[in-house]
Amino acid sequence: MGGEKVILTEENLQGSLVGRRFADAKSLLDKPAGGRLMSAVDVKELIIQQLGEALVDQKNVRFGDNQYYLSTQDEMDFIITESGLERKKFMAERFDCDDFAFILKGEVSAHAYQAGQLTCGICAGIAWGYFQWNPRGYHAANWFLDSSGALNFIEPQWDLIFPVEQCQKGVDLFLA
What we know:
With 176 residues, the protein is of the alpha+beta class. It has helices at 10-13, 40-51, 73-83, 97-114, and strands at residues 5-6, 35-39, 61-62, 67-70, 121-122, 124-131, 139-145, 151-155, 160-163, 167-175. It has four helices and ten strands. Strands 3-10-6-7-8-9 form a six-stranded mixed sheet. Strands 1-2-4-5 form a four-stranded mixed sheet. The longest helix is centred in the middle third of the chain and has 18 residues, at 97-114.
């Protein structure tokens, strides 16, 4: 399950990260990025393996593309911070957990769109299940595979990243 490394440099950045959302994107160039590309088949295998018994049904792990970019932790931290979601107010049934998750997934997709050096989307999506950080029960959150292949969950309401061990059970839909 290798992958082609993508390194951000001045040459391949091509000035594509622009606008309010990415005004400080060049700061990512200060540290060498270590993201890599991976097929959706390999991504699905990693996710199923890491979720284990928490996954209700493997057929509910769904991907829209054939290949994904596994970002570095720094890249994902940047996208999460720039999303501004932690400043939004939770409103039951109007702007609740699934709405936060959809918007963060959109921010990740917008980042990939504006990053001219990427040839595919970022390996991130939305999952529904039970998580230790959310005592209220069934919950929608975001997920991403980092460049090492580790599955992480994101609580978009708080801009926090949790390891896969925080997923308790009942993941019944996992989308990218």
